[in-house]
Design a protein that fits this description.
Layout (H helix, E strand, L loop, with lengths): L1 H21 L34 E5 L4 E3 L2 H4 L1 E3 L7 E5 L2 E5 L11 E5 L4 E3 L10 E5 L7 E9 L10 E5 L6 H4 L4 E4 L5 E7 L2 E8 L15 E3 L4 E3 L4 E8 L8 E5 L5 E6 L9 E4 L6 E5 L2 E5 L6 E6 L2 E6 L5 H5 L11 E2 L4 E5 L4 E4 L4 E4 L15 E2 L12 E2 L18 E2 L14 E4 L3 E5 L7 E6 L4 E3 L8 E7 L5 E9 L6 E8 L2 E8 L7 E7 L4 E7 L20 E5 L9 E6 L23 E3 L8
Parallel strand pairs: 9-16, 24-35, 29-30, 36-42, 41-43
Antiparallel strand pairs: 1-5, 2-7, 3-6, 4-5, 6-8, 9-12, 10-11, 10-13, 13-14, 13-15, 17-18, 18-21, 19-22, 20-21, 22-23, 25-28, 25-32, 26-34, 27-33, 31-32, 33-35, 36-39, 37-38, 37-40, 40-41
Length: 615
């Protein structure tokens, strides 16, 4: 009897537990997805658009449970506080508590923009166009200011940077005090100030890395208007600020001495020929190689460490040992999949370490096929077709070993020349072999549309460490002459006070550069350019240094203006002859030789409807 009682009791408890688990306490599944954003319940929230209002906090209550996302980034309060307000949420309410020890400004209109920070709890739908406005004076200011921030060099629109407005017109205010108003650019680089008072303002833009609302020129990109705006009866729109990084002296940003034989330094900006002061050891011989903002110091003597000074930077660099395995390595050429050489161009082979000597008796050029077992996977070549004419080089006798006594370590080019015979006994190719620090150059007037094979036998190349190459076989092909044409460019409507830098670009890379020195210049011609698509960048070179110069807020100097033009494709048998208009003007009729292109703003990129003419 007792046993039956316990069995019944166990059955009742099991059924009760099953029923409890089947009950759902959450939202029912199925049905349409919630896409409605949370809305403010006005009667339960702090009243918007109040005047003579000095609140300690602002509370907004919504019609559903909410949460906050990225509130520190999304919520903007203008005028800003030096100390961060306390932003919190609970249930359906968002609260912004102002700093207790920082009073509100007198007679100021405050605006709180919530961005996309407030989202519903279930589907994260953001509240739309959510802002709160109040005034500590007797009226709400109503003026507006809007514009765009662009990169001073590229012309691209810049998103997520601040724009500051100061009612104090002192130049030093940007370093000392927070702005009266601030806004942030959207994904299109656009900004808008609303509820602004009538007054005069100076405006700057700032990529505020440390979020202190103060200008730090040394590491923060910034922009400024040349003069203050006067906001009175009409709103101001269409402002454009060109964002730049002020360049101070170049500094060492990074260094790496972990690989034996080379110290790599990265500078904060490119320097053509940086000079280093060696602290120790007393004798440190090195070969210097500069590539844009990177510097390579190649050395051969085993050392424990090197101390050097560059401007204001002092480095103590620990160096690794030269192990036996280092000297057993073969030097290699950099790899390239497909090699095409212009008939008038130089064949260049880049190696992984500086070249010391070349045995030209071990270098051959042929159009004969080579047995498969002779093939080497170390195929590597870069041509100079995009670099323009071959540099004029000082030539030294072939087979002469390069030593610290015969090589000017820091700046001179290492070059040798010789005559190489083809492996055909009845044919001789007259060729010139040059090399600089890491590049072997074969200079020749190639036959067009022809396949060649360059064979560099083992031990033909020896680097500064005494290491040699394995056999390298390089197959390449020359282009046809008709794959190259000229591009002739002229400038109109320029300022005769300045010279202009014209940069011809392909795929955003500068391939040729020319200087337009004065209005007397008729045209600049880029000869023998490979057919394809090109762009032109024109720099108003106000300081005459032949390159783009950035700005300086402390000197109130704007960055040099840049304009870009998209050209029509360069095609075979048609020389491209164009006139580029620098200043805005009325549309110019197309004549029989060129098309003029009006450009109406800083760094504006426009398509060029041009006429291609062959002389």
């Amino acid at each position: 009897m007792i046993r039956k009682y316990w069995l019944h009791l166990l059955l009742i408890l099991s059924v009760a537990l099953l029923l409890q688990n089947c009950a759902s306490t959450g939202s029912p599944s199925g049905g349409p997805k919630d896409i409605t954003p949370p809305k403010v319940v006005t009667e339960k929230s702090t009243t918007n658009f109040q005047t003579n209002f000095f609140p300690n906090k602002i509370e907004l209550v919504f019609d559903e449970w909410i949460t906050l996302k990225n509130q520190q980034k999304e919520i903007l309060i203008s005028p800003p506080f030096f100390k961060k307000p306390d932003i919190s949420y609970r249930g359906k309410k968002v609260t912004i508590a102002f700093p207790k020890d920082e009073p509100l400004r007198e007679n100021a209109t405050y605006i709180i923009e919530y961005g996309k920070s407030v989202v519903d709890f279930t589907e994260s739908n953001p509240a739309e166009d959510l802002f709160f406005v109040f005034s500590t004076g007797d009226h709400i200011d109503s003026m507006e200011v809007s514009g765009t921030v662009v990169d001073a060099y590229t012309g691209d629109k810049v998103s997520d940077v601040y724009v500051f407005m100061y009612d104090d017109l002192n130049d030093s205010i940007a370093y000392e005090d927070k702005p009266f108003y601030f806004a942030k650019t959207d994904k299109n680089g656009e900004f808008t100030f609303k509820y602004v008072k009538k007054d005069s303002f100076q405006i700057i833009s700032l990529d505020d890395k440390n979020f202190n609302y103060l200008l730090d020129e040394s590491f923060e990109r910034h922009a400024f208007l040349d003069s203050a705006i006067n906001l009175q009866s009409e709103n101001i729109e269409g402002l454009e600020l060109a964002l730049f990084q002020q360049v101070l002296d170049a500094q060492i940003a990074e260094f790496d001495g972990r690989k034996p034989g080379v110290i790599q330094l990265k500078l904060t900006l490119p320097v053509a020929n940086p000079e280093f002061q060696i602290l120790y050891p007393d004798s440190f011989y090195y070969y210097q190689e500069v590539k844009e903002d990177s510097v390579f110091l190649w050395y051969t003597d085993p050392l424990d460490s090197v101390g050097l000074i560059y401007k204001y930077d002092t480095l103590d660099i620990r160096l690794p040992e030269f192990e036996d395995s280092f000297y057993k390595r073969k030097i290699k050429a950099k790899k390239a999949e497909k090699i095409n050489v212009a008939p008038f161009d130089t064949l260049g082979i880049f190696f992984t370490s500086p070249i010391s000597t070349i045995d030209t008796s071990l270098i051959y050029l042929t159009n004969m096929p080579v047995r498969k077992e002779q093939r080497d996977t170390s195929k590597a070549v870069d041509t100079l077709s995009e670099k323009g004419a071959v540099d004029t080089l000082n030539r030294k006798d072939i087979q002469k070993e390069i030593t610290p006594d015969t090589l000017l370590l820091v700046q001179d080019t290492i070059v040798q020349d010789s005559v190489i015979e083809d492996i055909f006994g009845d044919s001789t190719f007259q060729k010139l072999v040059d090399f600089d620090l890491r590049e072997l150059k074969i200079i020749k007037e190639w036959e067009e549309d022809k396949a060649y094979r360059l064979i560099i036998d083992s031990f033909a190349i020896v680097d500064i460490y005494g290491r040699s190459n394995p056999q390298i076989i390089i197959d390449f092909k020359t282009d046809k002459e008709d794959q190259y044409e000229n591009i002739s460019l002229a400038l109109s409507n320029i300022d005769s006070m300045y010279q202009y830098v014209i940069e011809l670009m392909s795929n955003s890379k500068v391939v040729r550069k020319a200087i337009w020195e004065s209005s007397d210049t008729s045209a600049v011609t880029f000869e023998r350019m490979k057919i394809g698509n090109y762009q032109v960048r024109v720099i108003e070179d106000r300081d005459g240094n032949g390159e783009w110069t950035t700005g300086s807020y402390s000197e109130r100097r704007q960055p040099e203006r840049i304009k870009e033009y998209n050209l029509n494709d360069l095609v075979s048998d048609w020389e491209l002859v164009l006139t580029l208009s620098w200043k805005e003007e009325e549309e110019t009729p197309i004549d029989t030789m060129n098309t003029e292109i009006p450009i109406d703003s800083l760094n504006l990129k426009l398509p060029l409807d041009s006429l291609e003419i062959k002389d």
